[in-house]
Predict the structure.
Amino acid sequence: MKDFEYFSPKTAEETLCLLSQYKGEAKIIAGGQSTLVIMRQGLLAPEYVVDIKGITALDYMTYDEREGLRIGALTTHRTIEKSALIQKHFRVLSEMERNLATIQTRNWGTIGGNLCHGDPAGDPAPVLITLDAKLKLKSLSGERIVAMEGFSKDMLEVDLEPDEMLIEIQVPTSRAHTGVAHEKLMVMQGDAGIVGAAVSITLKPKDGVCEDARIVISNAASVPLRVREAEKRLIGKVVNNHLLAEAGEIASAGADPPSDVHASAEYRREMVKVFVKRVARRAFEIAKTE
């Protein structure tokens, strides 16, 4: 690993000053679970490392029905997993976090660090896209709000300027009669997903027709992939197994997965079919009870 200068600011303002001063040469770590690995591999060699783990003001969760859920960027995966608030209002987030990596990683790694890493195999991003989440980014010149969908630009590349940091994740209150589910194919518990799927389905209360749907697949492209054509197959129709299978077929056709030591692209495409159908069925069953 190349030598670097290390900073440990205690406020967001200190961090933003450092990012502005060393624009393009500084790298934030917020737990370092992913970034330090690629630094050791020589794939990243920043001149300056800014460790923001000590900014306690960015470790929080709040919820009210009008404003929705607010999660500080430095909230750990384990905190989200165990939160009674999350389990009551956004159960899918708790379930997703429970299957993310090891308990040691969940205890130390942060939701913000995971999102800013931009790994297409990551679990939080697909779920947050189905939940229509937004991100608050901040620099010395101001703030901007961006959709979680589109935040990932390419593998390990996100829509974050060199002088910006992620401050907060914002998740709106789910509509009535909405079910959200997530599942991934793992070799062992806690592994990164060979493929994954997150699905939300909203039903009309009287006739059970699908009013809205979101289908997002992971590790099937260079970014978390929302498959709108598969969503269209469900919207406006009474959901059944045949439609869910068709949605899986459409999602598979739209995928561009990698081939690596874990699985071939062909195998991943087949698993996209299976997991989209399975997860959409779970989301549908949840929606009927909400």
